[in-house]
Design brief:
This protein is 50% helix and 19% strand. It has 814 residues and is of the alpha+beta class. The chain has a seven-stranded mixed sheet, sandwiched between helices. A six-stranded antiparallel sheet has the order 10-9-11-17-12-15. It has a six-stranded antiparallel sheet with strand order 20-25-24-23-22-21.
């Protein structure tokens, strides 16, 4: 969406917000609201998701605010949810203090109203739902010189989703009651219609028909009139406009017949048509709402994983249960057997098996001992654990997962943009078709009654809802199913690109291999072996590379004390250098030796032999020449070969790029069954390989887990990061695998393909339904009641088809 920004704000920093929107009834509503937001001053971009009932807005704070955006939504005929807080304020001494706090709170973006009571020392605050954090309120009050108590409210915010779910269930229950009442009132009218089809002369008296149909039309059906009025007032159309036009026409025509024919109108009225249409549409909306809740089940399951309290050990040794929002990093948390782990942390004491299935998709419990990390939301097994909290609140792994899934579900696929454009002209087009149908029938048949019924059928059968739900429900269900399997898709763009991938590049270390290399051979050229290990391991203390860990582990196993390292320097893709005991030590590959004019020829034969056995060769030298040579082996993951076979079955070319020697890479490639394996590839060259494949017409996926993979991850069509890797790799990637199983790479692509197959199926049926249904209605081949039933079921069928994706699971053949 283009924004009405001043020229000098083009590069201004934008704020991003997501707002819950009430009152949307079909895809045309979402399109109308998106246009209204896009026209608003200061809004740089807006996306409205009908299925999630959520508006995502990017705006320039200097030109607009959340409150103004909420007003725009209200003027478009919808409503933004509101949140109310009643929070204690300390430090106030007079009325001037309360006034000052009020002003400070009202200046916070998203605050609609703020009232501060000095006597009660309390602030009552109304905000745009989801648009204001408690921290921002507390910060504003603190800057004014006072303190706002937000701990209790923060606990309430943790359960906000549960409250929303309860409200949604309550709305659903209310809709069910209205639906039952509508069915009870409509059944006698339907019975009369059925009797007529069976050849019976049974008819209700016009008085009884009016008595039954009127409350259905104007009391139960009032929601359609309200939504239609809001749409017309905003200069647009939606499903409600069509329903109101069709049912009102049938209802009013029945009154016309009563007025002109009197008692003779018995059996010729169309009250049953209007009542049946409203009842069927209500039935369809109720079923649709139930089905839509199924598409968001993944988010609710993740929300349910968040414990509300944690058992914290204090400094004096006592244990106390605290709200999760009050737990801080560094706190010692006690987890008893069978309890859910409340925060991310590191085990400091105890041993247990942890069930992480709902977070990583790993079905088997994982053993955890001192030093291992645990993830909040996992379930403790039979052991007692003490952990040190590391990340809490919004920074926790579970919160990040929830944000990723929500982000993917809230986005719009490119095809949805086309659907939105169609939806925006759909209702006016249908109204024109209905008018032409009425005119055509009246011209040919001469019967006002037949012309009206055909036109009403056209109005009622047309349904923009199925079009609006086709894409978002499939995306929501597909990304949710992937998340349950341990596959997190960052956004809709990554999901869309993933289904087109036909080439996948693997990094070697930690991706196809275990990532836990060990020194398997060591040859000393100068000095003794222990001194060689000490120098090499001491120099590697500053490195996070897995190969450095192999030398450090060897020194630990041998009980060798390490020295300090100074002037540490990393040579990307080649090795490291550092000073140990004032002695310059170089550790790396042959390229590093060449750069420092060191000759490895005396040991090349030994090195080539090790490389042919898939062992990585590490050269160790000082300024005087070579000190020794080490062979490091990193075994292939047992899932590597099945992962490659899965990708081949999907028609995808597989490659591996490694900084290791070409002989090592080729040996690993043969063992894994890859199409191509290349060694001696520097990190920047990995990105060049990605670009060259793209130039050949490949859609490329890159899988890695380290900082040196970030450029290639960014260059690929889809970057896929292992969840055990570095944060930078995960941030750069479009897809994150929550466990280090390379088979999930094929799973991510399979999930994307399954989702887009569903989108195509949904759009096909939504379009075909309208393309076939509208002409049949215009031809007089469908009664209004049957047209209403067909319209009601069209949305239900689309959502139900999307729900079939919940059965998807990655193929994990061993």
């Amino acid at each position: 969406m283009s924004a009405k920004l001043q020229p000098d704000t083009a590069a201004a920093e934008l704020e991003h917000t997501e707002l819950a929107v009430e009152g949307m009834t079909c895809g045309a509503c979402a399109t109308r609201l998106e246009k209204a937001l896009g026209r608003a001053v200061g809004v740089a971009g807006a996306s409205v998701n009908f299925a999630l009932e959520r508006a995502t807005v990017d705006f320039e704070p200097g030109q607009t605010s959340l409150t103004t955006i909420a007003d725009v939504i209200g003027k478009a005929g919808f409503a933004v949810g509101r949140e109310e807080y009643s929070l204690p304020v300390t430090g106030m001494t007079c009325s001037a203090c309360s006034t000052r706090v009020e002003k400070a709170l009202r200046k916070v973006p998203g605050v609609i109203e703020a009232n501060v009571n000095l006597a009660l020392e309390r602030a009552d605050i109304t905000t745009v739902a989801g648009g204001v954090s408690l921290d921002s309120l507390a910060s504003a009050v603190e800057k004014a010189g006072y303190e706002l108590g937000v701990a209790a409210a923060a606990q309430d915010q943790v359960t906000a989703q549960e409250k929303q779910d309860a409200e949604a269930e309550a709305r659903l229950a209310t809709e069910k009651r209205w639906l039952i009442l509508s069915i009870l009132l409509t059944t006698p009218l339907v019975g009369q219609m059925v009797a007529k089809y069976l050849g019976s002369d049974f008819h209700l008296m016009p008085f009884f028909e009016v008595l039954l149909a009127t409350p259905v039309q104007f009391v139960i059906g009032a929601r359609f009139y309200r939504a239609a009025w809001n749409a017309v007032r905003a200069g647009a159309g939606n499903m409600d406009v069509l329903v109101v036009m069709g049912t009102t026409a049938a209802y009013c025509y029945s009154w016309y017949l009563i007025g002109t024919l009197g008692v003779a109108a018995e059996g010729q009225l169309y009250f049953e048509a209007s009542a049946v249409i409203i009842t069927l549409v209500l039935l369809g909306k109720y079923m649709e709402a139930r089905a839509k809740r199924g598409t968001t089940a993944a988010i609710r399951q993740l929300m349910d994983l968040r414990p509300e309290v944690a058992r914290v050990r204090r400094a004096d040794g006592s244990e106390v249960e605290l709200p999760i929002t009050e737990v801080r990093s560094g706190a010692t948390v006690i987890i008893r057997p069978g309890e859910r782990i409340p925060v991310d942390g590191a085990v400091v004491a105890g041993q247990s098996d942890i069930d992480e299935s709902l977070i990583t998709g790993e079905s088997l419990p994982v053993e955890k001992t001192a030093g291992d990390t645990v993830t909040g939301g996992a379930i403790n097994g039979t052991g007692l654990l003490e952990i040190e909290a590391t990340t809490v609140g919004e920074d926790s792994t579970l919160s990040r997962i929830i944000r990723l899934v929500e982000s993917a579900q809230a986005g719009k696929a490119p095809v949805q943009r086309l659907v939105d454009r169609i939806s925006s002209i759909f209702v006016p087009t249908v109204i024109v078709i209905a008018a032409l149908t009425f005119t055509g029938w009246f011209f040919v048949d001469g019967s006002f009654e037949n012309s009206l019924i055909a036109a009403v059928s056209v109005l009622v059968i047309a349904c923009p809802c199925a079009l609006g739900l086709a894409t978002p429900t499939a995306i929501m269900t597909g990304t949710g199913a992937a998340a349950r399997a341990g596959i997190l898709i960052k956004d809709v763009e990554s999901l869309e690109r993933a289904h087109r991938l036909n080439a996948v590049i693997f990094d070697k270390t930690g991706t196809l291999t275990e990532g836990r290399p060990k020194v398997v051979a060591l040859h000393t050229l100068r000095g003794d072996e222990a001194e060689l290990i000490r120098l090499a391991a001491s120099a590697q203390k500053g490195s996070e590379h897995p190969l450095a860990g192999a030398l450090l582990e060897l020194a630990s196993e041998r009980g060798i004390a390490l020295g300090g390292v100074a002037d540490f320097q990393s040579y990307t893709g080649r090795g490291i250098a550092g000073s140990v005991d004032d002695r310059r030590i170089l550790i790396g590959n042959e390229r590093l030796l060449a750069e420092h004019e060191l000759d490895p020829s005396a040991e090349l034969e030994r090195a080539r032999g090790w490389e042919a056995e898939a062992k990585t060769v590490i050269w160790i030298a000082d300024d005087d020449g070579l000190l020794g040579i080490a062979a490091i082996a990193d075994p292939l993951k047992p899932q590597a070969r099945p992962a490659v076979e899965n990708l081949r079955a999907l028609g995808i070319r597989t490659l591996m790029l490694s900084g290791d020697a070409p002989l090592v890479a080729e040996a690993v490639g043969r063992e894994a069954g890859l199409d191509d394996a290349r060694g001696g590839v520097r990190p920047d060259a990995k990105a060049e390989v990605v670009e060259s494949l793209a130039a050949e017409g490949y859609a490329v996926g890159m899988i890695g887990d380290g900082i040196n993979d970030a450029p290639a991850l960014a260059a690929a069509d889809v970057g896929i990061a292992m969840g055990t890797g570095t944060d930078i790799a995960m941030e750069t990637a479009g897809v994150t695998l929550m466990r280090p199983d390379p088979r999930l790479v094929g799973g991510a692509i399979s999930a994307s393909r399954a989702t887009f197959r569903k989108i195509k199926q949904n759009l096909f049926w939504a379009f075909i339904y309208n393309v076939i249904g509208i002409p049949l209605a215009a031809a007089g081949m469908l009664s209004p009641a049957i047209a209403g039933a067909a319209m009601a079921m069209s949305s239900v069928s689309v959502v139900s088809n999307s729900l079939l994706l919940r059965r998807w699971a990655p193929r994990l053949n061993d």
